[in-house]
Amino acid sequence: MCNRRTSHPKPSVTVLLPTPCPIETLVIPPDLDGRTGINRAQNVIAQIAAQNDLDAIRAWLARVVDKKTTFDTYRKEAERLLLWSLLQLGKPLSSLTHEDLLVYQHFLSDPQPGAQWTANGGRKHPRGDPRWRPFYGPLCATSQRQALVILNVMFAWLVQAGYLAGNPLSLSRQRARRAKPRVTRYLSPERWLEVKNWIQAMPKETDREREHAVRVRWLFTLLYLGGLRITEVATNTMGSFFCRRDANGVDRWWLEVLGKGDKERLVPATAEMMAELSAYRHQQGLPPLPSPHEDTPLVLPIGQSRKPLTRAALHLIVKQVFSGAAQALRARGDEYTQQADQLELASAHWLRHSAGSNMVDQQVDLRLVRDNLGHASLTTTSQYLHADDDRRHKETDEKHRIGW
Predict the structure, then answer these.
(1) Alpha-carbon distances, residue 339 vs 188, 192, 216, 228 (angstroms)
(2) Can you give the residue ranges of every domain in the chain?
(3) For 317-356, how does the pLDDT look when each residue is reduced to its tens digit (9 = 90+)?
(4) Considering only CA atoms, which of 266, 296, 274 is closest in space to residue 284?
(5) CA–CA separation, 279 vs 237, rounded Å?
(6) Which fold has domain 189-399?
(7) Structure pTM?
(8) According to the 3-state scheme, what is the secondary structure of 170-202?
């Protein structure tokens, strides 16, 4: 396993402190690799060639290797449990019991010792960085449930594959009492105004600064007005914008998004969004409006490159904006410290939640909000649904605004 050596000058000894490391570099001793795990299936013809827990996890992950977001999420949860089982319990993953998983759920709410499990300051470090840790802080109740759901899927698959005899999470599948549906990870109108003001005040003295400022404004427009996920920004192109004339002869622009689960949806490209798109394209030396099937990424790197930015690069831009806005807020006095701390926790997905909250606050029909955020089917083309789409566009355009 990964070890961090800490030397003490007096006396001259070396203490080995186990440090979690990514599973791609993990080396597990034979007595902990799961070959003789107490939950290994016996007298069953296995459907996978895995002889140990690490190979079994890799076989499970290989099913989703072509879906980066899903793969990263699944790997994260499997990796966390495997490392916890090895380092905290000193037992193989294939020896975990139902009681162990109850302890693990409690661990998720406060991974301790913090220096061993949590990245310093909650920062995300590259997987090859010695500062990398499996956690960035305690998991909220929703994230704990998501982790256990994913692990339940993994255990069930390993049972089906003939690797495990049983699923230690299957006894925990009773539905938990649902909390009142309330989104907490979103920006209040006051915090959102702080972010917009910070973006508008970004330096624009050099060509690079101007290009970056315009790009940030366009990115936040997509995330807020479009309610897009950051992965959707990374993977869709400007050629997905198209114009359609409604029954009243009004030209309405739409953005066709291929999103989570390879599902398509139509996002109303409001007048504000199209104005921001034109400004961004002008800054890039492009015509004001995109052409059909144009392969220009929705957000471009600084400079001459036309390659799409990665999800990680987009995430970094968003986090830098929130961090800058938080610092500006904190500089106004100690009474703003709490609000600044909350703002620094924000991510791109908070903008999606903020978009939904704003549309609801502005009394956009809940069914239209649902469709805007990604639950509408594009397979039906009847006149009735077509007219309903136009009403959705009209209400979104009138009531959901960014107000730069």
Answers:
(1) 10, 11, 22, 25
(2) 3-172, 189-399
(3) 999 999 999 999 999 888 888 888 888 888 888 888 887 7
(4) 296
(5) 17
(6) hpI Integrase; Chain A (1.10.443)
(7) 0.58
(8) HHHCCCCCCCCCCCCCCCCHHHHHHHHHHHHCC
